Amino acid sequence: MTNAHPLIDLDRLRHIIGSLSEGVLLVDAHQSLLWANDAALRMHGVEDLTGLGKDVDDYRRRFQLRYRNNHRLGEGDYPLDRVIAGESFSQVIVEVIPQGEEDPRWIHQIRSLILTDMNGDPDLLVLVIQDVSLRFEAEQRFEQTFNVNPAPAVIMRLADQRYVKVNQGFLDLTGYQKDEVLGRALYDIDILKDAAALDVAKERLREGRMVPQMQADLELPDGGRKLVIVAGQPVELDDEPCMLFSFADLEPRRQAENELRHSEERFVTTFRLAPVAMAITTWDERLLCDTNDAFHQLTGWSPDEAMGKAMPALRLWEEPKFLDAALEDLAERTAFRGRDARLRAKDGGITDCLVSAASISLRKDTCILWVIQDIHERRHSELELIGAIEAVMKDTNWFSRTVVEKLANLRAPHGAARPVETSELTRREKEVLSLLCEGGDDAAIAKEMGVSRNTLRNHVARVYAKIGVNRRAQAILWARERGYPLQRPIR
After folding, report:
1. CA distance 299 to 279
2. Contacts of 356 by beta carbon, 8 Å cutoff, 6+ apart
3. Residue 392 pLDDT > 80
4. What is the three-class DSSP state of 130?
5. Helix residue spans in 334-440 (DSSP H)
6. Backbone φ, ψ for residue 211 (5° rounding)
7. Where are the alpha helices (DSSP H) in 114-181?
8. Omega of the bond prior to 485 within 30 degrees of 0, cis?
9. pLDDT tens digit string along 6-47?
């Protein structure tokens, strides 16, 4: 700087820049620090110019600088060195570490300004400094939050529509590796594939506006696809406009819906083809909302006549109270089975039925599934058989007791153990039963039969085993139900 006007120039500069929020540091061509405003001093944690050092070498000893990638600046790399060398630069970002400390205390964004004299030679060198610590701390917090957020997300730079950040959630969702995503463009990994409102999404991307939530089929690296909800939010990253896309995985819901649809299809097929009459009614009004062919064959009502009608309106049940009782039972247990009922057909005919019902969910509504089994023929056959047996048993004087017992056994359920008939007992076993019914003790019975007590016990054990009892009282009851005591042979 020439001697003609340095003080004037410095005074003017101090007056102009003294109150600026940006830090200003003046240096001469001989590497001396001439002046710093209050903002520059605060950005270095010192009170006056001596705290910065008398020259560039002294400044380097007091403050260690490094780039954001942790690379430490050496002699010649400091912004002060570069501006003295005549280099013009803007937005150089460095971390500032005071002497004796390990971690950076500030982050500075620095630009240079070179003032020349009348001859065009460098006269005054200026560094303009901004403290961007808070901004980078906020960006660091955003980076940490973005990376640990379990919700899948990517950040796309709007200028070239390339992905500049991706979190682990997105990698887990898609199966991509990080280096397979970063730097790739939208047309390489199309996160808006088959989006529900693709035109809207593209328009919003061009305008840098929020992309509303919409469904899309996300392409996977293995060639598959995954149903997602995607939405975009404009953000700035490193002073560049970007779009933050977040995703929600809908694939489990799609799989559940597919399984539900298949289940409903299987139910409908079974419902339609079932040989037993089936119907579905609404819970509140008992309106018929679905019926199968067997139902129409049993009741005589056609689908057009039955659908949408209430069960009471069709007078399906001979006993009106049956429906109320069935609904009360369903309210308590949600299902019942095998309840006797008499169904009235369209022509007034009555059919004996077994009715089962269950509360079911159908299209998010609570309904009732009715299963109606026609047992009219079976019931009629049973009644005829029972009537025949009762008629025979009214007079058994001429009819063999053995035949009567065989007929009575027909009333037993299929598969039940066959009762022993008296004709299957030996003469000796019948004599033992008769004496047991007369109430004698073992000694008296053995004497009456002319056998020892041990022999008697063997006879009794065989009788118990044959008639299926294990106590004397049960044997006596069994015998008396069959007409004992019988007349014993005369000795």
Report:
1. 11
2. 335, 336, 337, 338, 339, 370, 371, 373
3. no
4. strand
5. 376-393, 401-409, 427-438
6. -95, 120
7. 133-148, 168-174, 178-181
8. yes
9. 444 556 656 666 657 899 999 988 899 999 999 999 999 999
